[in-house]
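Suppose a colleague, Dr. K., hands you the sequence of a protein chain of 330 amino acids and asks what its three-dimensional shape might be. Before reaching for any lab equipment, you can write down a predicted structure in token form. Begin with the sequence itself:
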Amino acid sequence: MDNLTHSLAGAVLGQMGLKKKTGLAMPTLIIAANLPDIDAIAVLFGGHSHLAIRRGITHGPIAMVVLPIILWAIMIGFDVWQVKRGKRPEDRLPINRKWLLTLAFIGTLSHPALDLLNSYGVRFLEPFSSRWFYGDTMFIIDLWIWIALILGLFLSLRREKKAHIRYYRPAMLSCAAVLSYINVNMMISVHAVSRADYEISQSIDRHQIKQIVANPVPFAFWHRDIILGGPNDYYQASYSLFDEGRVLDDSTPIEVSKHAPPVLNLQQLRKDNPDLDAFLFWSRMPYHGVVREGDASYAVVGDARFTHPLVGDRFRVKVKLAKDVQFVSQ
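The predicted structure, expressed as tokens, is then:
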């Protein structure tokens, strides 16, 4: 999920009563909730290499142990530094080292749990396994989650300011609402895939289907973009919780151009192109085509999950082809 969601999740956890356990609890929870995203530095490398780096080692089991301990040590060091300089706020709670470490773990673990919800993918087991896991439940930025968390945080802080003894209740209700909302979205995605799968089973002339993905979309949580098909032969359809019509009736092919493209040997092509290799390592539903510009030919490789115009070319790789490039039979 986006970093605002991670930060709000850490803050709401604090307002649920955890911030009373030790000094520096709130900043620890918020920082820890964002900590695995230190791999975002990979975007500075240029190209698409960051796709093979993001949501990997810093989201895996070793990082889930090491990162909280590093943060815990830094926060203790910061508290000691403030004491020596006489800058430590008098109203701050004393540091409880056991609780501070516990909160660092809670915040850090919340990060991959939220990242799992969308279709981008996360490698939970890196470096022991490079397998990608997908939740296909929430869009990466969800307005309704923002509203629920911000409202719960605001009402909880207002109650606390008025010295209300149960200031934590709005935060707890907010957390419960978000968890329920996530559960509903999970069921919508499962139902969307089941509907598409059933319709496919009733059709004898449809293309061979290797994958079906219910892709969440912004704002309209009741809607899913259904992506289905096989290598280089994907289709997009639309599902709505409030529409009982056939899902696949209006399916359209996902392609680079309207012309039937030659099929490339991508595995051979990626050997000499690190950018393409990184993209295909990340890609779940790759498709490609060949476009010609003047005397040159280019392979354009994309992922069927990310074809919205707002995405642009961020999830597309363009590779110039040599004249002796290999094609495979369709």
